[in-house]
Structures are given as structure tokens and as C-alpha cells.
From TrEMBL:
Database matches in Pfam families: FTSW_RODA_SPOVE
One example GO MF annotation: peptidoglycan glycosyltransferase activity
EC numbers for this chain: 2.4.99.28
Similarity-based family: Belongs to the SEDS family. FtsW subfamily.
Root EC class: transferase
Gene for this chain: ftsW
Entry GO CC: cell division site; plasma membrane
N-terminal signal peptide: none
Species annotation: Rhizobium leguminosarum bv. viciae
Phylogenetic placement of the source organism: Bacteria, Pseudomonadati, Pseudomonadota, Alphaproteobacteria, Hyphomicrobiales
Catalytic activity: [GlcNAc-(1->4)-Mur2Ac(oyl-L-Ala-gamma-D-Glu-L-Lys-D-Ala-D-Ala)](n)-di-trans,octa-cis-undecaprenyl diphosphate + beta-D-GlcNAc-(1->4)-Mur2Ac(oyl-L-Ala-gamma-D-Glu-L-Lys-D-Ala-D-Ala)-di-trans,octa-cis-undecaprenyl diphosphate = [GlcNAc-(1->4)-Mur2Ac(oyl-L-Ala-gamma-D-Glu-L-Lys-D-Ala-D-Ala)](n+1)-di-trans,octa-cis-undecaprenyl diphosphate + di-trans,octa-cis-undecaprenyl diphosphate + H(+)
Protein name: Probable peptidoglycan glycosyltransferase FtsW
Amino acid sequence: MVSRAERGPLADWFWTIDRFFLAMFIFLMGIGFMLSFAASPAVAERIGLEPFHFVKRHAAFMIPSIGVMLGLSFLTPRQVRRTAILILIISVAMMVLVLFVGQEVKGGRRWIWIAGLSIQPSEFMKPAFVVVCAWLFAEHARQPEIPGNLFAIILFGIVAALLVAQPDLGQTILTTAVWGGMFFMAGMPWIWIMLLGIGGAGGLLSAYYVFPHVAGRIDKFMTGEGDTFQIDTAREAIIRGSWFGQGPGEGIVKRIIPDAHTDFIFSVAAEEFGIVFCMALVALFTVLVLRGLSHAYRERNDFNRFAVAGLVLQMGIQSIINIGVNLELLPAKGMTLPLISYGGSSMVAVCVTAGFILALTRHRPEKRAQDRSLFRVPHGMPAE
């Protein structure tokens, strides 16, 4: 048992961490590991691997991911900022490199092989980008003469250009939505709101005409014509699951769903555990986002406020995109369900996000003492 009287790093961490957040992150990862038993064996067998290949790899990825999350949760806000800057520099450099030597999968260059591992640099860019932009917005709010907003706009332009070049329109939309939300919280002028809206609409229209695969997905979504096998089987799995599911291991449609262990794991969960289970899963993500926004609302420090809000928005919007595709509410887009789907880069990167959230939402004694000093009556001065 860790005592409050102790002053070591572990004791300070234990008594200042948001244990609800920590429990939620680990609980969601546990659900993801459980669902990997349901979703991945059929995928492994289809490509000639032993049935529990992806289950074992999922477990192998979970161990370092949890370690990364816990390690980052010990950081101070200043250390979070410095770590994010380092991660952003490395990930952006790798995103440039991936355009030339990256592994091409389904028409996109998003992965690079390092030491026998396939890494997607854009996944690690996302949390670092949020934290660095939060710092730039906060510096501009603290000292308007510092062009923090301008630097944030330039950084966004660089990141968006690299994502489009891969091309990865889904990550581009996610990054744009989170960045726009943070800019709005930082006091975005109305002219920028209008320009961002026009730019976003123009970007989507351009993507439709420039990228054939984007046009194909949107056309299939709007008309229901063409190759809609993924969406059709996902919908069939959800319908077959009904309210309470077919039971663990009893799913049939899941066996033919492409990418059942990654992009369409929500449909597998619906078939085996039912719509009620999926509603509970949606509720967990909702509570996670609302708690983060509540922390941000109470936070006095601009950097902490913008960073926490941006990080939870990133997790929330990514969840919405994944679930929306599974429910046929959005055009098909390969995007994982945070903390749930299989994927090494995705899982480690989401745990970087979780570690940053835990670090920035800690109840720091020095911060409370500083807040109390604002209302302390100086010696010799009469209290009102």
C-alpha cells in the first residue's frame, strides 16, 4: 500500500493521478484484447496463419503500450511539451521518408519498416501535434505579440500536406477537426472560422475529383452501388447480433468480414455481444470525452486546457468515424477504434495520447498551493 505520507515519485503519482481515467484506459484495452479472440482467428486463417496469430501479437503490443502510457503519466506539463516536440519532429521526418521508401498498401504509402516492425508515423504524429499546437495557442493567448497562432497554422499546413501526399484523407479530416476545435477554444477570429469552413469544403471537393478511391467510396455510400461487400457484411453482423448477441464464439458473419480485427471490430462485437454491449461501449467513450472536457473547463493553465481538450477530442472523433463507418453512417474509411482495434502503431500511439492525458490531468499539490496564494490576505492587511 502506498502511503500519503511518503514523498517518493511513486507515492506522488499514485495520489495525484486521475484513477478513473487510468481505469477507463486499461478497461478499454482489456475489452479490445477480449474482442481480438472473437475477431482475429478467422482473419488469420484466411491469410494462412495460425488462428491465434493476431491475438498473440495483440497481447505483445499491449505490454509496451501500457508501459508507455504509465511512463508518460509521470511527466510534468513542461516535460509533456518537450516530449511532444521531440515525437513530432521524429514523426514528421518519418512521414517525409515514408513517401519515398514506405511500404505501399492499398494504394497508399503510410508504413515504413524499421527493425522488422511496420510503423505508421502519422499515428504518433497525432498526439504530439495536438500538444505542440496547444502550446502555440497558449503562448499566443499569454503574450499576443508571440505569433503562436500563425505558427500553429503553418504547422497544420505541413502536417495536412504530408497526410494528403500519402494519401490518408481520413487522418487529414481527423487532424483538421481536432485542430479546428482547439483553435476555436483558443479564441479563433470569425474570419478564420469562415476561411477554415471554406477551406475544408474545398478540400473535400478537391479530394473527390483528385483521388479516384475517395470518389468511389463516396459514390458507393451515396448510391449503394458497386462493391459494398465490407459495409454489407458489417451491417449483416450487427443485425444478426440483435440486442444481446449470439454469444462468445458464436458469430458467423464475422468470419467473412474483411479487416474484422481492425476497422470492423465494432461489428464483430455487435454480432457476438449485441447492440446493448455496443451501446455501453459508446457510453464509455462518451464518458471519457466528457470527463476530459470537464477537466479542461476547470483548468486555469491555457496549455493544459487546450492540450487535454484536444487529446480527448482526438480519441472521441476517431471513435465516431470508426463506429459511423460500421453503422453505415459514414463512407468507408480505414480507421481503428482507439484502444480496441488490433494494430501496433495505433495501440502504442493511442497510449501516448492516454499517457499525455494522465500527465496533464494530475492533481498537482504545487498548483493547488499556487491557486490558494491568489486569495491569501497579506500579513498586516485587514481582511475585507
